[in-house]
Structure formats: structure tokens, C-alpha cells
Amino acid sequence: MTPITESQIARARALIDPIFLGSPIVRQTGLDAALGCSLALKAETLNPIRSFKGRGTEALMASLTNRPTHVVATSSGNFGQGLARAATTRGVRATIFSGEDDNPGKLEAMRQLGAELRLVPRGGNAKALARDMAAKAGALYIEDGAHPEIAAGAGTIGMELAMQCGALDAVLVQIGDGALISGVGSWIKATSPKTRVIGVTATGAPSFRASLKAGKPLGISPDTIADGMAIDLPIASSVDAVAAIVDDVIEVDDEAILDAMALLLGSASLVAEPSGAAGVAAIMQNRKMFGGLKIAAIVTGGNVRPELLAQAAGRADDRASRATVRRAEWDSAAAL
């Protein structure tokens, strides 16, 4: 049995604000040629928070029978945006604990969506502070990855992939807290068991990968540009859920992620934050594994730091320049 059932995902879909549903599939012949496979990209960046996280936060807040007056959570940005929007549109106060050096754009977006931010110095225990505040204020503490409604909301992406793409050889899914792959993987395994569900982690965030190997949560401090995957200690139930549906896990380093961001920008005009490009990075680092296959990957978010976007744009320009030189050389050789 999958961790999240088809009925749970179907119920979640009925609760989610439609603005987060039905995200498009992007296909580009240039991407297929560069990667050596047939790639369907699920673009989760064309919604009010430019991230898939709105699906899970909508599903959770809409499912609460005893609606709280105040919710508290931790987030580096995308989950906090989703929770802030889902809470404040329902008249619920939202307080988010974030790192003081988190992406400034994401911090400001949370504020604009109505969240009260509490910034925690580097090395501080944001989760402990958030739990303590929730207990003292009588608020509901919400932890991303701990609520099945969040995974079910994310699972609607799997439902849509099945409808939009048909049979697939593999689906690549980023692993951060585990909710996304638990939900997507549950739908895929229930409806297309031959399709491989492959998790993607950042090399600089090995905690979840190590926890899967050990069969229990292991805490390891992350160091990666992929802040959406920078988990230091996964939840035990999330480790179990991911282990039940994942076929393989691939790790990608920051250089590969930047190259993938550049490829998406140059070949598909898609702006992806580092975590959002991780699925494509996994294909770039493992071309033989995916050669000739029908693959789906999820661009999970587009809230990228300006300096990282500039680096990706520079790499995209370099890639285009090299391609122009190669074409000129081919044309010259053909003319001889």
C-alpha cells in the first residue's frame, strides 16, 4: 500500500484553490536533444507563489475542521509563502520562523502575503523556537512533511502528470522534507506501477539520503544552494513514506544544478530556483541511465536569488555561444 492513497489525493484536489491546479507541461526539442531523452517538464512556477507548495498548504488549511486562529511554522521561503496565503485568505494569523540569511526575495514575499516573520540567526533552532511560540500562544504548529494532507496536496501533481503525459518510464522528484515525493510517488505507483519513481537530493544536503539508507532519521547539516532541499533532519514518518515508494535516489551537486538552471533558461525560457532544476540536473549527470526514455521532471519553484539567476544566465550565454561556434564550424566543413 502506498503512503498516501488515491482517495486522499482526490479529496485534496477538491479542496485546493484551482489557481494552483492544472500547471502546464513544457516540452522542448532542444531540451530532449541536450539530454538524450523525451522530457516532460511540469512547470509549478506559474501560480501566485511561484512554487508547488501552495497545493499542500491549501489542502491542509482547507481540511482543518476546527480552524485555528493562529498557525506557526518554519520555512526558508516557499512553504511559508504557501502557508501565509492559505492561512490569511481564511482569516488565520500566520507566523513563520526563517533564517536571517534566507533568500531575501522569499522573505519579502512571505511578508507581502501576510505572514509575521521571526528571523533566526544562523545556527539557531528555528523549529524549537516555533514550537515554543505555538505552545505559549495556543497556536497550531505546522511542520512541512508531517501532515498527510500536505503530501496529498502535492500528490495532485502526480495525478496531473498521469493525465497529461500518459505512460512514463520514470518520474524524477526532488526530496526535501519528503512530502512532494510521498504524494507524487504514491499516485504514480498506484496507477502506473512500472513507472520508476526516482528521488533527487542535493549532494550538500545528504540527511534524507542517509536516513533512507539507515532506515531512520539522521541529522546532517546542509550546505547547498538548493535551499528547498536543504533539510538537516527529516521526520521519521516521512522517511518511512518515501522508502515505501522510491525506486532509486540520485544526488546532484551545486555545479550540476547551476548547469541545469542554465539549460532550462536557455532552452525552455524557464526560470528555476536551484531546487526546481534538480530533476534536470539528475538527467544531465546520468545521461546513460535515462537515454531514450520517457521522463517527467518537476520544476518545483522559480523563486531564485538574483545572483544565482545571473550565474545561470551567464552559463546559458556561454552554452549558446559554444553552440553558435559549432554550427559555424559545421557550415564551413559542409561548404568544403
From TrEMBL:
GO terms for molecular function: L-serine ammonia-lyase activity; threonine deaminase activity. InterPro entries: Ser/Thr_Dehydratase, TrpB-like_PALP, TrpB-like_PALP_sf. Its cofactor is pyridoxal 5'-phosphate. It comes from the Bacteria. The keyword Lyase applies. Keywords: Lyase, Pyridoxal phosphate. Residues 22-301 form the Tryptophan synthase beta chain-like PALP domain. One of its GO terms (biological process) is L-threonine catabolic process. This is Threonine dehydratase. It comes from Neomesorhizobium albiziae. The lineage of its organism: Bacteria, Pseudomonadati, Pseudomonadota, Alphaproteobacteria, Hyphomicrobiales.
